[in-house]
Write a sequence for this structure.
């Protein structure tokens, strides 16, 4: 199985400042046949289910604010919140679906307001 | 609007059984593969099981293989998870999740674009 790791475990950022979350996979999730990275990002607020933010490593889901962006390729990925808002307080998970059975998630990164 | 509504969770003793349901609406249910994903209290996300749109193909995490059975009734737009021989470590919120495309292109897959609100399963004596 592909193992996903995330860093940091948690971070506190001032309102309006940038938040950066890293995700690393134990093997490449870039498929050479279509040049796509099989990597998604989710946001989970307390008491709520995960919400899809980003897929194919950098494609923003419809309705997701453009302050959220994804980047990276191969084994190293980043989720950036360009200007943190109060409503962005949540846990963020990355997921690989390159080897989809099983698909695996990172352990999560908790984002708080400083 | 896509909606997924889980039910059937509750308190069960170790070794017991429970059947979860997920009622789907807002999309052509029979065209999409579906999954169950669980989250133990205070922990991360763990994929549990998946089923193709027709129901003809099913897949399980090693941790539940032989104990859980996924199924679907496309005439009722409902996904199920039959859980037997439950253990304390199965305690979690169970989410049903819709695949972001109708089917996998195995071994490659897709993200989950919609999730239900979840149903809590507690295994304890």
């Amino acid at each position: 199985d592909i193992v996903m790791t995330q860093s940091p475990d948690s971070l506190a950022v001032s309102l309006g400042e940038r938040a950066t979350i890293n995700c690393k996979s134990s093997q490449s999730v870039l498929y050479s046949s279509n040049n796509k990275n099989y990597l998604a990002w989710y946001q989970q607020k307390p008491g709520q289910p995960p919400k899809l933010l980003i897929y194919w490593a950098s494609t923003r889901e419809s309705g997701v604010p453009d302050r959220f962006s994804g980047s990276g390729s191969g084994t190293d990925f980043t989720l950036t919140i360009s200007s943190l808002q109060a409503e962005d307080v949540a846990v963020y998970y990355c997921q690989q679906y390159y080897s989809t059975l099983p698909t695996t998630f990172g352990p999560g990164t908790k984002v708080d307001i400083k | 609007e896509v909606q997924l509504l889980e039910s059937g969770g509750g308190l069960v003793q170790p070794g017991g059984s429970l059947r979860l349901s997920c009622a789907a609406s807002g999309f052509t249910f029979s065209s999409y593969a579906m999954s169950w994903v669980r989250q133990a209290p205070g922990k991360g996300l763990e994929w549990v099981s998946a089923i193709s749109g027709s129901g003809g193909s099913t897949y399980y995490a090693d941790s539940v293989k032989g104990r859980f059975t996924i199924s679907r009734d496309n005439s009722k737009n409902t996904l199920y998870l039959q859980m037997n021989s439950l253990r304390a470590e199965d305690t979690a919120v169970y989410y049903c999740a819709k695949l972001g495309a109708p089917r996998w292109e195995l071994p490659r897959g897709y993200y989950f674009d919609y999730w239900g609100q979840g149903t809590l399963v507690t295994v304890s004596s």
About this structure: The CA atoms of residues 1 and 85 of chain B lie 36 Å apart. The first strand of chain B starts at residue 3 and ends at 7.
